[in-house]
Write a structure and sequence with these properties.
Blueprint (H helix, E strand, L loop, with lengths): L1 H34 L4 E5 L4 H7 L9 E4 L12 H6 L5 H7 L8 E5 L6 H13 L2 E6 L1 H4 L18 E4 L7 E3 L8 E3 L1 H22 L15 H11 L8
Parallel strand pairs: 1-2, 1-3, 3-4, 4-5
Antiparallel strand pairs: 6-7
Helix pairs in contact: 1-7, 2-7, 4-5
Protein name: Sugar isomerase domain-containing protein
GO molecular function: isomerase activity
Keywords: Isomerase
Length: 243
């Protein structure tokens, strides 16, 4: 247990040392996007969809983050093994994005720790073609240790406007246990969210400094939470696309 916690802390320190500039650039981009009445979206396949689930409609969360969920690419519908197959299929990305509200000038955060699978790569390509600004949330070390599954040979971080590196190791898992032939205990969910939450907090801070409103949800389990959240959902309905 101590070894795992030490590995997580080490990655968090590495992330802080190496990603502060990218985090600041991303926060400035998101704040500018909201100030122009554009929208922010986030997408991930399989376990990377957890990042999208964490960032929307949650206590203390910025209200204007819109998840994109696609059938067969998230974990709640069995068989979950289908997500592994679907994220490697060409054409899904365009089908999903072309049917979503996303438009030129919006921002799309693409979460893929390995950065090698077809769907997030083709989403980055779609964004580039259509004037959508893209941000990769990935592990550059992991991506550069594997070959792309896309015909272009590119990995996600090579195709987006900005990159946030969660600093996970190739394969994600960090612990070796005697008698176990593979490593266990992945870190990427922890480190990815440790990137996203401070980026969003900085986005909120920048909006307030510029004189803009920054809608943030309260917990529905505290007094006045329901009333507060209902007001935000109504007031910002033009930038909230998940209701």
């Amino acid at each position: 247990m101590e070894d795992y916690l030490n590995a997580v802390v080490s990655q968090l320190h590495q992330m802080y040392r190496t990603q502060s500039d990218a985090m600041e650039k991303t926060a400035k981009l998101l704040a500018e996007t909201i100030s122009l009445n554009q929208s922010i979206y986030i997408f991930g396949c399989s376990h990377s969809s957890i990042m999208a689930q964490e960032m929307f409609y949650r206590a203390g969360g910025f209200a204007l983050i819109n998840p994109i969920f696609a059938p067969g690419l998230t974990l709640e519908t069995p068989p979950v093994s289908r997500t592994t197959r679907f994220e490697r299929i060409s054409g899904i990305a365009e089908a999903v994005l072309s049917e979503s509200p996303i438009k030129p000038g919006d921002v799309l955060i693409l979460c893929s720790i390995s950065g090698r699978n077809i769907v997030p790569i083709e989403m980055a390509e779609y964004a580039r073609r259509t004037g959508i600004i893209s941000v990769a949330l990935t592990s550059v070390a992991y991506a550069e240790s594997v070959e792309s599954r896309h015909s272009s040979g590119k990995r996600l971080h090579e195709l987006t406007d900005l990159v946030l590196d969660c600093c996970s190791v190739p394969g994600d898992a960090v612990l070796e246990i005697e008698g176990l032939p593979v490593k266990t205990a992945a870190t990427s969910t922890i480190t990815s969210l440790a990137l996203l939450h401070p980026v969003m907090a900085r986005t909120i801070e920048l909006l307030i400094e510029a004189g803009h409103a920054a809608p943030v949800f309260m917990s529905a389990n505290v007094d006045q939470g329901d009333r507060h959240n209902a007001r935000l959902l109504s007031e910002y309905r033009d930038q909230i696309h998940y209701m």
